[in-house]
Recover the amino acids of this structure.
């Protein structure tokens, strides 16, 4: 008799994409990532990209050499805009660096397991971004060979010391500490992976170099226990550090009395902006890399979507910051503060402000839509737009606030000269060169952390203690 | 030549058992602990908390070292600032007192963090005895897989309950993929 079977409808709940592609085990994960490093044949695309990046880096060499010969007059800085691209680029690069620490440290503290395939790359990005940032405070002094005595407290023949009430010296300590701690954190995370490379390297040079750097790591459970504690503590230390570093950077402006600078919203607004910019840069770099190196099952759509959500959230905080600046311009009843907002929105440089609103506030609202977040190319374009927008934000804060301050007789204009641009683009070249070198010699994904995501890593499912037999391995296809 | 002295043979570091799954390793380590073995260790390609507990590892002094590092860093940074700003090079900046402690807070914080991080890394490495380029377990041929996809348990020959035959049989009963004797 034919029965009328009611076939159940398949569930219409949209599942989140997985954190790791199916079918992986410890071996496949290790080989997939270490193969990129241990291969003898450097891919042609890598060589091509590296040469372009290196060429652009040489622009930096040229621009800085000319700067040291001729002095800061070659830049566009003048009165009243005495601080131009140098400080804008410095803050932009430092901001980019903060995403790396956030992904490594803060997401670890929040137990977000999806951080594991992007944290190594993000931390490396932090280190290179801080390296690029650190150039600017040095070269913008005009005579950097003299800069040492008023930046670093060292005993000198003139018997003078730096002045610790200045945000500039706070900056020195903050950025140096940030660079050192990020380096230590990154290296700590690398040790087990260096051991993996040491054990799998075919060439003698590789075995010796990786072996030296791996410090003899053998994966002892007792060592792992201390290691995990150290890693967690470093994450716990890095979290307030990253918040404090960009706060101190924002103090460079907030401590001054200039309208448009002297505002208490700056520390949280800068920190949120830094995270915003940094995540955008991680996406800008990671999306092409994952396609080029076939890593889509390790850096999955889940990562892209989660990072987009973080970008959206921090973008909203930044939007709040802009709104507050505008409101305070009116609420403060100070005509100078009010004029700052009028000048930004309608003055001669208002094109920068409106482009900023377009790039930083309007465009990322597209990320509310799931369809957009699931489209990798769109997310890539949006993140590049955000990178540009964040540069513009620093430009607006520095240049527009400076070029028209209290006295109209003091007003002026600012144009970036070709040397300004060459220096800036040169640092982008330096950053990209370092990234290329990094992906060639070190694993860009944290191998040991991704191993913990593999299904076989769960205890208790494989060994049947009652029958003393192995259960069939569910991960084997 | 390997001399036999009771159950202990010179030149032997211990017996190394290889397992294919983390669960098997943890089970074997727990059983070995029940049997009375104390000098043993697990080797895994990623951290497994249960393995560390099974070999009886409890005390972890890394946090204390971090705290000491933070305090040293903080004290060092503050004394530097105090000495410079109050004693050696006092200058009047915006009418602030020489000992303008609120202005010293950012640098104090950064020095504390730097000290804590430095001590954490160096302390962790020192407590682990790293760098240690040579260790007897590296002599085992398959040990390279400890950093890839296999899990190892070593029972050292220096353990009082160690005996080449009995321990070997015990390990083999734990469904190890291989059991090898590791030389010093």
């Amino acid at each position: 008799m034919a029965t009328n079977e009611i076939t159940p409808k398949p569930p219409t709940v949209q599942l989140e994409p997985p954190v790791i592609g199916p079918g992986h085990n410890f071996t496949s994960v290790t080989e997939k990532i270490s193969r990129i490093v241990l291969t003898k044949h450097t891919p042609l695309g890598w060589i091509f990209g590296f040469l372009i990046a290196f060429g652009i880096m040489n622009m930096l060499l040229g621009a800085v050499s000319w700067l040291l010969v001729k002095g800061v007059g070659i830049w566009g800085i003048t009165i009243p805009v005495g601080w131009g691209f140098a400080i804008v680029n410095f803050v932009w690069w430092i901001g980019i660096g903060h995403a790396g620490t956030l992904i490594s440290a803060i997401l670890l503290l929040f137990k977000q397991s999806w951080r594991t395939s992007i944290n190594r790359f993000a931390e490396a990005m932090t280190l290179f971004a801080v390296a690029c940032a650190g150039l600017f405070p040095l070269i913008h002094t005009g005579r950097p060979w003299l800069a040492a005595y008023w930046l670093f407290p060292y005993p000198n023949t003139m018997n003078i010391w730096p002045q610790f009430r200045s945000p500039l010296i706070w900056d020195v300590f903050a950025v140096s500490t940030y660079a050192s701690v990020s380096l230590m954190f990154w290296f700590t995370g690398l040790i087990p992976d260096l051991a993996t490379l040491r054990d799998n390297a075919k060439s003698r040079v590789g075995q010796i170099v990786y072996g030296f750097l791996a410090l003899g790591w053998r994966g002892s459970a007792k060592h792992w226990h201390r290691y995990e504690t150290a890693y967690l503590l470093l994450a716990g230390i890095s979290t307030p550090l990253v918040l404090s570093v960009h706060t101190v950077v924002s103090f460079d402006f907030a401590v001054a009395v200039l309208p448009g600078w002297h505002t208490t919203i700056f520390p949280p607004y800068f920190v949120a902006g830094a995270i915003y910019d940094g995540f955008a840069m991680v996406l800008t770099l990671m999306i092409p890399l994952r396609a080029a190196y076939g890593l889509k099952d390790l850096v999955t759509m889940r990562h892209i979507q989660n990072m987009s959500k973080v970008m959206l959230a921090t973008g909203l905080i930044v939007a709040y910051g802009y709104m507050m600046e505008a409101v305070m311009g009116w609420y403060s009843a100070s005509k100078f503060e009010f004029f700052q907002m009028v000048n930004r929105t309608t003055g001669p440089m208002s094109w920068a402000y409106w482009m900023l609103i377009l790039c930083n506030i309007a465009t990322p609202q597209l990320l509310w839509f799931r369809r957009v977040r699931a489209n990798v190319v769109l997310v890539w374009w949006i993140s590049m737009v955000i990178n540009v927008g964040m540069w513009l934000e620093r430009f607006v804060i520095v240049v527009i606030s400076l070029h028209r301050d209290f006295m109209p007789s003091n007003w002026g204009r600012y144009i970036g000269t070709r040397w300004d641009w060459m220096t800036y683009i040169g640092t982008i070249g330096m950053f990209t060169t370092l990234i290329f070198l990094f992906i060639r010699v070190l694993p860009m994904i944290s191998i040991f952390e991704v191993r913990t995501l593999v299904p076989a890593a769960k205890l208790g499912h494989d060994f049947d203690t009652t029958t003393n037999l192995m259960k069939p391995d569910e991960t084997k296809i | 030549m390997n001399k036999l002295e009771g159950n202990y043979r010179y030149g032997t570091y211990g017996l190394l058992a290889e397992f294919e799954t983390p669960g098997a390793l943890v089970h074997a380590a727990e059983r070995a602990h029940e049997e009375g073995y104390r000098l043993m260790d697990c080797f895994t390609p990623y951290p497994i908390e249960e393995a560390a507990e099974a070999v009886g590892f409890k005390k972890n002094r890394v946090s204390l070292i971090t705290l000491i590092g933070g305090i040293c860093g903080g004290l060092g940074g503050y004394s530097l600032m105090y000495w410079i700003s109050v004693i050696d090079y006092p200058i009047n900046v915006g009418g602030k007192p020489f000992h303008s402690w609120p202005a010293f807070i950012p640098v104090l914080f950064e020095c504390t963090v730097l000290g804590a991080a430095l001590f954490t890394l160096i302390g962790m490495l020192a407590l682990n005895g790293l760098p240690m380029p040579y260790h007897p377990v590296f002599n085992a041929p398959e040990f390279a897989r400890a950093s890839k996809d296999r899990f190892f348990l070593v029972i050292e020959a220096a353990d009082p309950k160690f005996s080449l035959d009995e321990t070997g049989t015990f390990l083999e009963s734990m469904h190890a993929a291989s059991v090898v004797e590791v030389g010093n």
Summary: Chain A has a mean pLDDT of 90. Chain A touches chain B through 75 residues (CB under 8 Å).
